[in-house]
Amino acid sequence: MLEVLNQHDWLLLVALATLGLVVGSFLNVVIYRLPLMMDSRWRKDCCQLLEVEEPPCDATISLSSPNSHCPHCKEGIKPWQNIPVLSYLLLAGKCGNCGVAISPRYPIVELVTALMTVALASHYDASLALLGAMLLTWALITLTMIDIDHQLLPDDITLPLMWLGLTFSALGVTVSLHDAVLGAMLGYLSLWSVYWIFKLLTGKEGMGYGDFKLLAAMGAWLGWQSIPMLILLSSLVGAVCGIALMIATRRGKDVPIPFGPYLAVAGWVTLLWGDALMAYYMGAAGLQS
Questions:
Q1: Tens digit of pLDDT per residue, the chain (289 long)?
Q2: Which of 70, 84, 162, 265 suits a disulfide with 95, CB 3.0-4.6 Å?
């Protein structure tokens, strides 16, 4: 099968686009439900710690239960209404039962996931390396959306992502295991140091521990050599987007802005074009001929 996909570029692109759309639909579920699941666990832990009775809840939520339904009328979504992007277009962006508008964010996430998955084909053949790049890409999309919504980077994703990066390096698919381990260490400690220096100087927390873990995960995937570029790119993108948001929304500089999305963008750019960017920088700085 891998040989067939590698021999027919169009077939690989179609397969990746289809897979990306399906996975994007699942990512929408994770983005919405995982924070709710975490909140439920926190409430339960707090009740046990305080030795108080846990308040009753309507239903236990998980990634598989309950079935997808309209948040307005609670009517279950039929299989033909759950086809990525296509169902949204056929239903004119409305619930098939009550007619309430559906957020365009769902098809956008599906489409972006498909496009980013297809983009990986420009750098990878059908191989284990492509699988790793897809898993990393999908995790970064999920973390980006959750951080935008809740300013939260769940350990449920960042920690498995780091161990997965170390596993792929141990299999010889990505960077060497030595570089991956150093990347995870340097990624975590670099932002951890910035956090404490900023806190000691200002008395404020400049970022969350989830940012440390995300950079550690990307260090495990991309190696310790990528850490300076990841920090530089994420800071540059964050500064530009932060200033633009402040101007567009007229909100003060004290309003917190999630840093995870900028780390994710920097990580994906480095995954695909890190070597080219580094070569360009070294050439522009006169460090190589």
A1: 667 776 778 888 999 999 999 999 999 999 999 999 998 888 888 888 888 887 766 567 888 887 887 777 878 888 888 889 999 998 888 888 888 888 999 999 999 999 999 999 999 998 999 999 999 999 999 999 999 999 999 999 999 999 999 999 999 999 999 999 999 999 999 999 988 998 898 888 878 899 999 999 999 999 999 999 999 999 998 888 877 877 777 766 666 788 999 999 999 999 999 888 877 766 765 666 5
A2: 70
